[in-house]
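Filed under: proteins

Residues; backbone shape codes:
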Amino acid sequence: MAEFRNPNQPGASQDNRSLFTIMAIMILVFAGLQFWRAKHNPQTASPNGQTQQQQANQPTPTVAASVAGQTIQVPAVQPVVAAAESTTVVENELYKITFSNKGAQATSWILKKYKDSYGQPLDLVHTLAAQTVGYPLSLYTYDPSLTASLNNALYLPSATGNITAPQTLTFKYVSGEYQVTKTFSFDDTYILHADTQVLRNGSPIRALVAWPGGFGDQEDAKSYGGSQVDYSQEQKEKHLAVGKVTGGNTLNGSFDWAGASDLYFAAIFLPDAPDSATVATLDSSIIVPKANRHNGLGHGVPVAPKGEPGKDEIKVPIIGAAVGDLSGHTQTRLFAGPKAVAVLRNVHSAGNKTSLEPLLDFGFFGIIGKYLFLALFAIHQYVTPNWGWCIVILTVLINLLILPLRIKTMQSGLKMQRIQPQMDAVKARYKNLKVTDPKRNEMNAEIMQLQKDNGVNMFGGCVPTLIQMPLLFAFFGMLPKVVELRQAHWFWLPDLSSADPYHILPILMVISQFLVQFYTPSPGVDPQQQKMMAFMMPVFSGYMTWNYSSGLALYWSVGNLISIATQFIMNKTSIGQEMREIAAKRARRKAGEGVNSKTIQGKTVKR
């Protein structure tokens, strides 16, 4: 072989020239071979298709579609389908949502700050009901077969595994003539944003995003009664109870918000475009045990969703709602969380027109109940964190406010007792008249004039009752419906929104109500009627609170104890002593009249 020297040595330059000559000859030979091969062996087609230039010259594949009665050609799309089922978990400090790519819907929606009755984190998804009627964020169309197909398809997710909000999750599905895109955006609140669209041959169809299957805190037969569909149109809210919800009924119009709720939780859609929003109410039923029975999932056990209930079972309603847009492209926020006043008042519809605070529906006396709860909320925020003590403090404050009225009532009662003999004399003159006799009006006029002359207000004794009764009914409608009292403890009471498990407060109610009737003077009231009330009122109060919210029993019992203490003190005053002396004299006189009289042929005569 030729010897190559170091370039720095003498004679090395000649060797370099020889090397460069050899390399140039090899390059020329290689180029010539390539030219000869290309000329005598033309390139064959790729086994996988045409070249890029040939593909560019080819027409786009199309499929036939019918539009407005005419058959046209629309571009075909490549299928987008997941190969297998997968899950994606989205989490922030408030919730942990598990999505399945089967249907691109939520199979679990855990609220971290709330527990079920078994002490486990509360899952807003009623798992067993969802298996029958559908999962949250599923699609609802007016074609049952299409709805089932879209909710069972395997979507391709943009992410799998665990992701942390703020985040965006997109699911896509393309097969045949259908293209579906579902995009969900999350932040650090109870609200997510949903952007869904279903295309058929490139044209949008109406597919609503739904929350169809109730809520996870509905664990026994009683808990389904508070379900309702709520919506707001032009800042006027409406609530449809279970019996008024028609499955598949569509409401069109401008909706600020719409959705479903139970006593404590809600799933409410807030459309981005309220004017073109459409709402479908969903109604179904399942069979659950009459008693709360744990099945490992924290829900009642439906035995035969389409059958008849057995001996220890009952059929209960499952209601929901779906929201879409008339254009077919649905863009909406979804609030899924507790009906807590501090949370709802900060969630507003598009354009900031109205908040979700009207979801707190407290019934006929709702306006009073609302302000009572706001008072409780203020006490909880600034005085004590225990809701039981909040109820006690509010009860004391209410009784202090009506104390002046109670004093006025006693003064009016004393005046009434003083003129009672004169009133009885007037009634005696007219006692033989029939009830329909016009002259009885003269009797009433004389009595009213007598009361007026003596400064007696005939309605004076009713004022405290007229004030307390609306408050009582307002508490009756409010206390079982506020999520803040759900599972709120106070001494032996584990849940102020549920009944006293040991019935201590209802028993205390009966005793205290009897003492209230015993200690409170009732001037002008018939003794027999007074005795009847002394027994009827305690029985009524015990019945009202036996299986009802223990918070109501606490309010009522504390109010009774304050009334007893107040009346006991007032009975020691000069006014109270005079009232009792007058009442005792009248009682002795009536007893004497009974002893010194006898009945002859149906008539009473004095001896």
Residues 370-419+454-592 form one domain. The mean pLDDT is 81. The first helix runs from residue 12 to 40. The longest strand covers residues 277-289.
